[in-house]
């Protein structure tokens, strides 16, 4: 009986609730373009949406994120801690350090490009050039000439007379190659002390005849203890940040 009463009340109250809370409608339609100007606007919107979908990944490649992320990943493998710290923690740390390192570049880009563009002092073309300028200076400081020469040679372009003549499409991959090289060099130096601990532990266990005991069970706590005693995170983060200045 109670269930029937509830059903009757719901049938009475639901239409009133529906009228009380009206939702806006969204309409999507495809209409024939009335002129080339309208078609150009549609193409610009599609191009803008496509760029926005990949913009975060592209912007990260222009910063110090690549070196930081690779070094933290190599450190975790050197320690042998598998998934500790987790990927979310390492990526978050790399992102915050990237914002810290790139803050002068972001500030310069805002002062020279974003603010004048919002005030209507410069146009679209000058805006993009002004935004890229501080990022290009940062990439030039951290790019090897050998890697830059390789990308210019592969592009089959003329030898640039100055930095302004270097195309951004050639500078970005050269910068990324240089960042990967620097990250692997730092990772190699990180591996050496932990590799020595692994070798010592394995030799001691072998000499004691404990061949069935995995050396990782003994070496892992020792490596973590060594990393904590030398204040490894402080040294590593400090060295990484100083390497960009």
Descriptive tags:
mainly alpha; 9 helices; elongated; 245 residues
Q: Mind explaining what this structure looks like?
A:
With 245 residues, the chain is an all-alpha fold. Helices cover 76% and strands 0% of the residues. The protein has nine helices and no strands.
Helix-strand blueprint:
Blueprint: H1 2-20, H2 36-60, H3 65-79, H4 87-118, H5 124-141, H6 145-154, H7 168-207, H8 215-229, H9 232-242
Helix pairs in contact: 3-4, 3-7, 4-5, 6-7, 7-8
Q: In one word, what is the shape?
A: elongated
Please report the distance between the alpha carbons of the first and last residues: 78 Å
Estimate percent helicity: over 70%
| Percent range for β-strand residues | under 5%
Give the topology string: H per helix, E per strand.
HHHHHHHHH
Tell me the Rg in angstroms: 29 Å
- Profile the largest sheet: none
Catalogue the unreliable spans: 5-21
The SS-based structural class is mainly alpha
How large is the count of helical segments? 9
The average pLDDT value, as a whole number, equals: 78
Number of E strands: 0
Quick structural overview:
By secondary structure, the chain is mainly alpha-helical. It has nine helices and no strands.
